[in-house]
Each structure stands twice: as C-alpha cells, then as structure tokens.
Amino acid sequence: MNDQVAIITGAxxxxxxxxxxxxxxxxxxxxxxLADVNNEALAEAFPAGKNLVLEAFDVRSADRWQRVxxxxxxxxxxxxxxFNIAGIDRVAMFIDQPLGNIDAxxxxxxxxxxxxxxxxxxxxxxxxxxxxxxxxxxxGVSPTPGTTLYSATKFGLRAVSLGAAVELRQHGVYVTVIxxxxxxxxLFDQHIVEADPEAAALVFSGSRxxxxxxxxxxxxxxxxxxxxxxxxxxxxxxLSKLASxxxxxxxxxxxxxxxxxxxxxxxxxxxxxxx
Length: 275
Known about the structure:
It is built from 10 helices and 7 strands. By secondary structure, the chain is of the alpha/beta class. Strands 3-2-1-4-5-6-7 form a 7-stranded parallel beta sheet, sandwiched between helices. The longest helix is centred in the middle third of the chain and has 29 residues, at 99-127.
C-alpha cells in the first residue's frame, strides 16, 4: 500500500485536511495528489515533497479533472484511490434559498464528485483495480429540512456511489460511500454563526458533533474492509434510514428534533460567547 497513489479533494481544511495529514503519517511512501480550490490554505498545510503534489483545483471543471487525472497517471503511473471529500453547504429553508445556491451546491457537491468518479473509474476499470471513497452525509440518507439543497446533492452522491459500486465490482474496482452526521469543521462554525437557527435545527439535533478524526478513521476502515457504505454514528444512521423508508416518520419526528436542535444551538452559541 505504501507506494500506491491517491487523489484527495477538499484537502485544505476540515475532514480532507485531517485525513490527508493522517494518511501521510501512516503511509509515508504513498504518493498523494492533494487538491483544493483554496491553494493558499493547501500550501500552508502541506509543504510539497517528492511524493506529494498540490493542485489548485476547482472540482466543477470536468476539463480540470481530466487534466489532474492524466497528470497524476503520467507522473506516478496510476490512480489507486480517489477520495471525494470537497463539499459546501448553505443552510436555509428551501423557500429562502437564493437560486444561485442550487447551482453552487449541485456543481460542487454532486457534479464535481461525479466528474472525478467517472474519469478515475475508467482508468481503474482498465487496470482491474482501484477504490473510490466518497464522503456524503446522513443528510443523503434521510431528507433534512433546513438543508434540503445539501441533502439533495448528498442523496445523489450516495445513489451514484451505491449503483456504481455494483457496476464496477466486476472490473475489480470498489466504491464506498461514507455518510457522517454533523462534523465539527469550518462548516460547523458557519452554521452556528451565519445560519438561521430555525433552518439549522435538524443539523444540530444529534447528541454531539463528530470530530474530523472519527471520519478519518472511518475512511481508513473503508480502505481496509471496502464496504458499500459506512454511516456515522451507527444509531443516527438507523434513524435516518427509518425516516427515509417511511417519510411520514419525518413529520412525527420533525417537531421534537427541531426543539432539540434549537436547544443545542443556543447552548453552543452561549458557550462560544455568541448568544
């Protein structure tokens, strides 16, 4: 594994930065292409080296994706792993969402990941090996009021991941989708500071926010076991699947979960001196 090649998107912050840091520590000979639209933060986090390439990269560009993959293969000979971690969120009730947010979330969270999947999957299928790991969300398992656009993009990413996993298995290529609950990253802070609490309430309705290291460990587990899907935490994953299987349950749960989430937001804002 040490001499394998991986592309990681969203590597400048949050889950992507934590995972890329850990991967470098645990697999120092692994050759990494770290990509992010924020080139300054990327360069600050990761000094370039022999087995490390930094790419200032907008995942919305299919042409840029093709170039990055082609250059990676030319430089290192192959792509063994693709980690699609880049993503954004814009929390607001659906009726309050600016139309531009539809393009932004679909283009980055869904189309950007699918461009990478499609281009890399062709290369991996030709080689007869490879693993694509996509970070989606529990919002992609159960519809999430207050963050419906994000939920829609993660539903799409999860659906393509599971479908492609079945298609590609015959070619020796694995696909795993990881669906975490709320994670304490810069998006967490954005939700607390900027978002309407009424819209963000369900996002904060869990018992606690996950840490980036917990998601990183799930990615390492995916690399080892190559499952179709990992939900984090397990209990919230079951609740999400119940709400998805029986949508009327969401109507029953929305009130209590919203009250719990509003309470959590108030507590966090108070602890951070924002109330």
